[in-house]
Design brief:
Elements (H helix, E strand, L loop, with lengths): L5 H10 L19 E4 L14 E4 L1 H7 L4 E3 L6 E3 L8 H4 E4 L2 E4 L2 H10 L4 H12 L7
């Protein structure tokens, strides 16, 4: 397990506005502490530097794992999983109420791979909406 210095951890959390950079859920009100995700995994020579780190909820972090590429089932194209350091969320995804929809092969494939519209996540987003924390700014 890679140790992430406290100052780097704080930077990642602050930069993400305390939200998962994949699904957008706020860490406020969540029981589990969000993970600092290596976008390019350590096993693939990903470095522990700000440009390779993202804040990820436990569900997104575990579902992503060490994957870097995924298949867009609509086109059959193998694409890179969404990279919050190199890509803009709004170019690949759009909110449709509490569901997230993919605008690109990367967006669609990331939604499927991370199961971003599973029933539990939709329920959490509905609660977040009531609390004024969804959709993310």
């Amino acid at each position: 397990m890679t140790t992430i210095p406290a100052s780097l951890r704080r930077l990642v959390i602050q930069r993400a506005d305390n939200r998962c950079e994949y699904c957008g859920i706020s860490q406020l009100g969540q029981v589990a502490t969000f993970h600092i995700d290596h976008i390019v995994p350590v096993v693939a020579a990903g470095e522990t530097v700000a440009e390779n780190l993202a804040l990820a909820c436990v569900s997104c972090s575990l579902r992503k794992g060490a994957r870097q590429e995924i298949e867009d089932l609509e086109t059959g194209e193998v694409v890179s999983i969404f990279n919050p350091r190199q890509q803009l969320w709004k170019e690949h995804f759009v909110w449709k109420g509490v569901e997230v929809a993919g605008l690109t092969p990367t967006g669609r494939a990331t939604i499927q791979a991370l199961d971003l519209n599973r029933p539990t996540m939709l329920a959490i987003r509905a609660e977040e909406e009531l609390l004024g924390r969804h959709p993310p700014p």
